[in-house]
Structure to design on (148 residues):
């Protein structure tokens, strides 16, 4: 991997070349940045000639989350654990754990995803995965694993 000043890549991660990784980016455990990927900005209103490091916003991608090809996560918004962001989706408000987010500007939650990567059926208060059998409970617009 080429020398990238002010970029941290955990030793358990892979970065395929060529790709663009912005200064100050941290790529954590078991991540895979694929060829031609561009890691998004951390300033909500970037201008090339104006330094705005004091405006940096943290964006977190939770464990097991999937980011589809060409999706965009606006800085300052989190993607929850095991959430699934569809290809080309533009996330402007963040994504709850297990959320299935699709669409452009803004992406919308259209369902829930199991930890194993299978879309869950229509949830009532309780739902289980048809593939692996994991049980979930929906309450208050959030999905939680019933077994953890």
């Amino acid at each position: 991997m080429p020398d990238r000043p002010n970029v941290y890549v955990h030793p358990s991660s892979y970065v395929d070349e060529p790709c663009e990784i912005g200064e100050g980016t941290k790529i954590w455990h078991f991540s895979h940045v694929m060829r031609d990927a561009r890691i998004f900005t951390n300033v909500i209103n970037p201008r090339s000639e104006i330094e705005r490091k004091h405006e940096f916003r943290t964006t977190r991608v939770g464990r097991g989350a999937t980011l589809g090809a060409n999706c965009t996560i606006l800085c300052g918004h989190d993607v929850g654990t095991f959430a699934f962001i569809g290809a080309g989706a533009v996330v402007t408000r963040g994504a709850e754990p297990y959320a299935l987010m699709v669409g452009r500007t803004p992406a919308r939650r259209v369902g829930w995803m199991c930890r194993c990567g299978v879309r869950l059926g229509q949830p009532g208060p309780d739902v289980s995965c048809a593939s692996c059998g994991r049980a979930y409970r929906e309450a208050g617009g959030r999905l939680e694993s019933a077994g953890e």
